[in-house]
Structures are given as C-alpha cells and as structure tokens.
Amino acid sequence: MSHDALTAQVLRNALVVAAEEAGIVVVRSAYSTFIVEGSDASAAILDAGGRLVAQSMATTLMNSMALRAALPEVLKDFPAASMRPGEVYALNDAYRGGVHTNDLLVFRPVFVFGAPRYFTATMIHVSDLGGLSAGGMAPLATDVFLEGLQLPPVRLATAGGLDRAVEAILRANSRTPDKVMGDVRALVAGTAVAAARLERLAGEYGEAGLAEGIAEYLDYTEARTRAAITGLPAGRFEAAYPIDDDGVHPGRELVVRVAVTVEREPPRVVADFAGTDPQVPAAVNASASQSLAAAVFGVRCFLDPTIPMNEGCLRALDIRLPEGSLLNARPPHPCGGRFVPVYAAMEAVFQALSDAVPERAIAPSGILQPFSIAAVGAPYWIHLSYDFGGVGARAGLDGPDATGVHFGLGRNSVPQAEPVESRCPIVVESVETVPDSGGPGRYRGGLATRTVFRFLADCHVTTRGDRLRLPPPGRGGGRPGRTGGFFRRRLDGTLERLPSKANNVFFAAGEAFVVETTGGGGLGSPHERPREEVEADLRAGRVSPRGAREDYGWDGG
Amino acid sequence: MHAIAVDVGGTFTDVYSHGPAGAVAAKVLTTPEDPVEGVLRGVARVLTFDPALVGSVVHATTLATNAVLERKGARVAFVTTRGFGSMIPLGRYARVEEDRYDLRFTPPTLDVECFEVTERLDSRGAVLVPLDLESVRRAAAEIARRGIASAAVCLLHSYANPAHEQAVAEVLRSRVPHVVTSAEVWPEIREYERATTTIVAAQVGPLMAAYLTRLRAGLASLGVRAPVYVMDSSGGVMSAELAARRAVATVESGPAAGVLAASRYGEAISFDMGGTTAKACVIRGGRPAITHEFHVGGKGSFGGRRAGTGVPIRTPAIDLAEVGAGGGSIAWLDAAGALRVGPRSAGSLPGPACYGLGGGEPTVTDANLVLGYLSSASIPLHPALARKALDRLAGPLGVSREAVAHAVHEIVSAAMASAVHVVTVQRGIDPRGFALVAFGGAGPMHAARVAERFGISSVVVPPHCGVASAVGLLAGALSADRVLTRLGAADPEAIFTALAADAAADLEVSPSAPDVTVERSADVRFRGQSHELTVPWSPAREELAERFFARYREVYGIAQRGEIEVVGYRIRLTRRFPGPPETAPPLGPPPGRSPRRRRPAYFPELGGYADVPVLTRDGLDELAGPAGLAGPAVVEDPESTIVVPPGWSARLDPARAVLLERLERAERLERRP
Fold first, then answer.
1. Residue B378 CA, distance from chain mean position
2. Does the beta-carbon distance from A416 to B191 stay under 8 Å?
3. Distance, in angstroms, between A185 CA and closest chain B CA?
4. Domain residue spans in chain A?
5. Which of A251, A310, B510, B538 is the most buried (most CB within 10 A)?
6. Which position has the higher pLDDT, A423 or A498?
C-alpha cells in the first residue's frame, strides 16, 4: 500500500497539530482586545519556497493567504542563507503581503540539517500600533500613513531575545506599549512551539522523508481539488457586487466584478476580477492576499468542504486580481477596511457559482460590522468588536441568524456582556435578533441583531460598516434583507443615525450606541413559503404578525 | 462487605465486584434503549454470593451526556434578564475544519423556550434595575400554561449577587416543579457558559432522578439494597440523591472512572480505548489533571474538542482528550482512494463483521483479528467474516489483506496518539518520563505502538484491564466542588469558608471532620488578559504570584512576570469513600501449569506473519524471568488482549499488572528501585 498514503496521513496530522499548538499558545498569552474578547489567533507552516503546508483550524483564510504572500517578501530582504537559528522576522506592510497596521505577521525559520527549510508563522490583530483611533480602525483614512505604523520586514528577534531597536519602535508607536509587547512575545512563543514540533518531525522522517511526505500531501490535496472541480458545470459565470460607499463620499457606490470560468482539461477554476473599480484614496481597498482569500473561499464553498487547505488546493485555482483595483491596491492607498471589498468579491463569486449550481445557491448576506469604543484619552480602555449580519437563504434552507458564515468565523468571537461590563464603563442593555430583518422568500434570509451599549463615561465610537445602504438582494424572487446601521440614542431616547464609516464620534456618558446589523437576502418567492413555516416563524418571533401579512400574504391572526 | 462497580459505555456495560469472596468481572453488551436492563444482567453475572452482602454500588453513567447529545432531556424554560432572550438561540458557536467551507451549515442550538424578566445588576452585584415580580409571575404563568416542568434561571451578574435569581426561583416554584438557578449551579462570570451549564442541569436533573429510582428498584429485585453512588465528571463520587440534584456534574461520569483506574501508577498517561472512542489523560503524583470547561458534543480537532462546537459545561471535569475511534471504528476509502478509519463506528449492533451479528463493514477489531492479535474470548469471533470484510478494502487498493489490516491498525494507533498528544505535548508536558497505562477492550492491543510514537518506554496493563473503568469506580472519594467569581474581593478567607460550608452540606459532613480534605485554589490572570489559570491558593500574594508564573511558563512556555489579579475562588472537598479497600487483593494463580499456545501474528519488523507464543498472565509469569519475556508475544485476558511487539519485553508485577518495556532500555529500567 499505500504505505506512502499512510505516512502522508500521519504526517498531515502532525503538521496541523504543530500549527494548532502555536495558535493555542498565542491565544492564551496575548493581550490584544480582539483576543481578550474571544477571537482566535492564526498559525501556519510554510516551506522555504513560500508554499502553505498546513494551518491551524482557527486560522482564517485571509490570514493564511497573508502569511503565504508575505514570506517571499521577508526572504527578499533577508535571504534564507543569512538567517540563523532562533531568529524571528515580522512585518505588517499591506503592499508586501500584510493586511493592515494592526495585523502583525511573525515568521521563524526552522532549520533542518543546518538550513532554513521551513517557516512557522503566527499572526493576530495586536493591541494598538497607532493610527487615527485607539485599537486600529481608521475608517476615514485617505492614505496608509493615517492608519498607523508601517513595518517592512524586520528581524524582530535573535536567539538572544527581542531586538531592542525594533521593540523601541513598536513601543513608541503604540497607545498601549506594554500590551503590544505582550502580544509580540505571544506571537514569538507560538512560532517557537511549532518550530520545535517541526524539528522533531524532521528528525523522525529525515530531511528527504519530510519533504517527500509534504509533497505527497500537497499532491493529494491537488488531486482531490481537481476531482471536486469536475463536479461543477463547465462554463463562464459572471457576477458583480456593490459596496455602499468609500466613507469619504457617502452615497457613491463602488463595484467588484468577477467572471468565474470552470475548465475541464485539466480541471481548473479561473476567477478573473477584471472590470472591478479602481483603487480609491479611502480605506476600502484590499491587498492582493486578502482578495485571493475571498476568491478561494468563494470557490471552495462549492467544492467538497473536507479538502485540506494548503498549496495543493491553490494549484487548481487561478485568481486574477487587476493591479491598482480595489482588490489589489498600490501604495499609498489605505487597506485598513479590506473586509469591505473582500466581502464584495466573495459575494460576487458566490452569486456567479449560485448561477452555475442553482441547487446549492445562496442569496447575499448581511456581513460583519466592526466598531470600537474607547476612552477619549489616556489611560486607554478599548472595546473593539463586531457583530454579524444574517446569512442569505440557501436553496432548500433558511439562512442562519446573525452568524457570519463567511471565512470560518463564528459567534464565539462575539464578546459576552459580563466580561465587557467588568472591564469597561459600559452597560450592555440588550443583544437581540431583529424580527422581520431576514429577507422574505420561499427560504427566508437569516435575521440581523440589535445590540445596545449604554455608556457610563464619555467615549469615542468608531464604525466601519457596509451593506447598510444597499441591502443584500434576494435571489430568484426572494426579497432583500433589512438594512441595519449604527445609531446614537440620545438622553431623550431619540435615535440619530451615524454614517456607516465614522471616526471617533464623541458620546457623552448616559448616551447609548446602537449596533444594528443587516439581514440576509431571501430565496424564491415569499408567497410560496408554506403557511406552517410562516406560523413557526411567528411563534419563534422571527416574523411579526404585520411582517407575516405584508411580506408573506399570511391571512391569519 | 462487597462493593459492586458498574460502568455503562457506548458498546459494553462493565460490572466488577470486589470483596471477601474475591474479585469478579463481567462484560455485557449495553442496552441503549434502557441501560438498566444491561446493568442488571451484568450485576446478576457477578452476584456469586448473597446479595445482602453488597455494601455499596458505584455507578458511572452516560445518561446525562446522552440526554444532551440526543436531545432527550426534559423540556426547559430558560428565564433571563430582559434584553437577553436571544442569548441561547444566537449561541457562541465556532466552526471546525469540516464545516468551515460548508455553506449549508446551520449552527446547532440548545432546545429551550426563553422568557425575560425585568431586572438588572452590575458586575459588582449592585442593583441597576429592581426586580419586577409581576414580570416573573407572568413568565411563571406562561411556562405553566405551556406545560413545561423544568426551568433554568440565569440572570446577568448573578455570580456577584444571587438575590434576584433566588427571588425569581421562589416565584417560579409555585408553578414549575423543577427549578435551578445559575448561582446555585455554578456562579462564575460569562453569562453564556453559565447559562448552558444551568440549562443542562435543568434538562438532565429530572431524568437522572427517574433513572436512579428505576435502577434502585431493579437492584432491589436482585436482592441488592445497598446505597447507590454516582461518579461525577471530576472523578469524585456522590450519593444518588445528590446526583439527582447536581446531575450536570455527572456529564463526564464514564470517562472519569477509567482515569481513576490509572491513578495508582503515579506519573502516568491513562489510555482507555473501547469500542467507540479512546481517551487519554495525564496523571501526576497520582492525581488526574482537571479542567474547568468542556464541551458536550464538541467536534474534534485532532483529539481536542474545539470550544464553541458543543454545549459548554463549566463544572470541573477530568481533563481528557477524546478521539472518536475504537475497536468498532469502520475503515473506508475516501473519494481520492485514501484509506480512512472512523469516525463512523459499528457500535454494539451490528458490531464488527467478526461478531457475526450481521455487520459487513471492516472495523479495527476485524483488522486486529486478521493480524492474529485477537482471538475469541468472552465474545465469539468469526475470522472468515473478518477476512471477507478486509477484502472489501484490499481489492480496490490492490494490496494484500494483511497489508490493509496492518495499515488500519497503524492509522488507529496514530489517532490514539493524537489524543495522548493533546494532553501532553499540547499542554507543555514531555510524555517520555511517563508510563502509559493501557486499558479498555482495545487499549492493550495498541498501547506499545502508541508509546513508540512518543518515545515512551514503559507500558502498564493493569489487572482486569478490560473492565478497568469499573475497577476505577471503586477508587473514587466522595467529593463536592464549588466556585465563585468575585472581582476585587476584599476578604478571600470569607469566600473560601462559605464555599466549603456549602460543599460540606452537600456531603452531609463537617468541613473540619478528620476524614475530610478541603483544597483551595484560585483563578489567576495577568491584569489585562482574559484567560485565567487555576493554581493552588496561597493567602500570601507573592507566593500566589510565583505559583501563577510557574504555571504560566509550564502551560505557554513563556517566562512572564507582571501584575496579577484573582478572578475566581474554588473549593474541592473530599471525604474518603466509606467503601471497600482501595486495591483489589490479587487473585491467586490457578493450580497447574497454564496452557501454552502459539499462533501466527503479523509484525512488519519480522516481514509479515510469525509464529508467536500466546499466553495468559499466569503463563507469562511462569515463562518470563526477571528481565521479562522478549516480544513478539500475545497475552490474553478474558476481556482484553495485550500485544507485545518485537523490541518490547513483558513481565508480570506482584499486583498482577503486565509491564511492557522497550528492550533497549529494559536493562536500565530493571535497576530502578
């Protein structure tokens, strides 16, 4: 047999476990607000050629694609031959593989018989590295310099410890210098744990054995990906998806376009984003690695979900991102709000492939809605979080409520009220699903949520939303999801709508900040929804009696 | 007096009796429809003496776990603070690899009906909105109208002040038969996990009470009228009356028992492999590691259970890693033609192909039979059926039957190893200094191969290893745990005293009684982080900090110092179990020489099948000198089989455990005191 296949299976586990361990160490020992509120760390293993070998379960595709894009850039500035054991490298440069200021990427070379053959990598959204608002969001930045510190590839540490000059630069550029260094130490420790595992694997399998085992693993993944692609109909499928605005020019819509081509000989998927709007001097551009992740994720959702995620999978996909577009920005166009064009790109791929495979179609969704609440001055407390919109209806299935189906995120990362209130001068008054917010249809879109934060002290609120003006449309006769928004509840109880992208809005103690997400689009005509299902929604409070009558033509009650 | 231990597993129900008449073990198939039936069948098998001589029955049950997994628990009304009625439906799930790209994935939720009451506290327990009793009465009326008989109350910040929850419960109890509050179940910060723990308590409490009543009636019909005890998730034992009230503490009852069986071996890794799952746990200084959060129904992540994929339960539990692979796991070929094993299992019906109960799919047990590791014992096996099942894989793969069988054996050993990995390497523990203590029906067959993967050179197979979990039940002490989150507490001593008094009331003892032990620990973190570590308490701040720094380094590999804060306080109160002595008297060897047999068994080191000796424990003792018998060999017990691969030696110790040692180190180990 198949002794090779067996070895690959065992080795594969070991590689993923090495990445898992790194992630656990980072999550447990970091200080970043995102991590403190429940988010995960990312961790991956790459080879010296920059190929992605394995990633931890919690690693989002956006982060593993960033690590994969950034490693060759590190190696450009620091050739592998010059590296020494114990060294660690870092960067956040969005134009060289990074994501945005606060996402710090850390790499450690793993030496096999004296040469750096592999790299272990970790990354998280660190506590603070400067920019327009505490915690890292700068929704109204017009160039990258307003977003905070830019870190090109640097040698962060040697076997002797952290580089003092780099540490001084990081500290000097952070509102929370101790926390940011805690995060850096966590990231470094994570790479060390995974590197130790990898060294042992190399000892066990030998240099050639490990390399062959990895090559077979990638080949196996490629074969499975191509086999899955033959299950899609061949042809060209086009779609476009809009962005509300760039934050600087409210009401001016931007568009992402894609043509997805499914090929047969050999089986391959090409996603070409030609026709996407050009980059803008506002924080709604994406670096190439992030857009690549969106396209790969979109395609993978129509393939066998159990295919491993590594370089082998990527070989069967050809993603074309026009340079200078919203999806592949050049300096100094800011990339801090990259999830906005990235989610538009992913949705466009979903819609194109939903046309190709109608029995697995999904209507567009409400998306994640980040915001930050911070002290108006030192000492800084920061609450940085997001909530999720409703997922679009699926052929044969309603959309899940407020879950953030995309990119492997889950509600685990939504903080709970008790820890937030014990840490910040905030009272969380309510976290509720919004009745009638799911797009009506034969299959109903998932519901949105409304969360109310009442402040016990003055503070600054920063927002970064999309799909708050242009609702996710329905499919095949389904209706759009209800749009949410960011609001101020004044002391007299009246509501004031805030812009979807707003920077450091002053809130006085006693006022409340309301975060309402957007519901998912419906699929199929709502009049075809069976009466029992409408009435079940009524009983569960997902639909109001009025909504049942107006949206579904329900004649009861 | 005799003690009887009963462990109900997914495939087998194990019963072990121990007393003046000696030790007797029985293994019967579990009866999933009504587990009491299987239990009584097993108990009848070990009752070789007057049932009136039974002094206690200790029970490990998966009733609570299954009620959650199969959604068979009581219908529950969830009562919470106004504004948070969506807390449970929204949930806090995460995704695992197999559903991260699945657009058709719908997050699982707990089945509850939610009710809101008007009230609000802050994080220090101060009242922001007074409790509106009229809103509680309205909720109570509606709960009663819907015919819901069990209610779980979880109000925001009740860990800081339980007054509102108590008042709500008082009103509800006039209309709802079974009411639990989060402050009495587990008063710890983080509303979602506290709520799910309380809801599970409300779901399984009524069920557990009814089950234990039936069990006791059944035992009485056999003439056994002794008190019944239930093992909790952390390896303690409590009375049946208490188990009905604190049923949520029994969710991991079954796995805990197995770990206790290994606890007497000091520094050990317990390795329990049964028909459907395998579990590993680290034991240091004779004590199993304890965790403070686990996830019922959680999905696997290479041996761990990913937070957010199941129902979180915050009561203490033995920290074990579990993989869904065992003797019954089915081997299959995936779409790309690669050989995979599990997670599907043949269970107790139809069981592996070789059981001859109608199963045709190849399982790990079938592979082990083909390899010559296994033979008919308490369950008759049919080798021809196993061969036929394996051929279903050999054909498409174009390799020999025995090559496939060995690959299945290896893949499963690797899966087992990942469970060991989670509890050792991932926790920053080097497994090489530990003994692997193997038990469960399938554990001793794979143990040496699992040990080899970690450089572990010593494997212990205890006596009665096939029913070790049942044996372990008799090693539990009566125990009760309590926790309290208290931010910035001025007087920790008062908190500990109150917690201990509360726990002592559960056990109906005085905290200061001579046979009672009170352990204090605290949840500590660096100020500004959100993940705590639990360390033994010290009232001296510097000493507490040092303990925390040391633990932090051990867990994360980072030598960090800084300002600490204490977030929670924990008490564990134990009282020596008033049952039988802790260790079983060894059974004397039967008269006469043991039979000597040989059979072909497959070892790749030897290039294929080799004729190897097949011994009983007594036969091993007769044959092996002080240096042990060199492998390959097979040692057969009535309920389990020990494989001694080439490169390992085997011998019997005075307590009748089989010791396997790596040959190259055997001599050195031999000289150990």
1. 25
2. yes
3. 8
4. 3-205, 231-358, 361-557
5. A310
6. A498
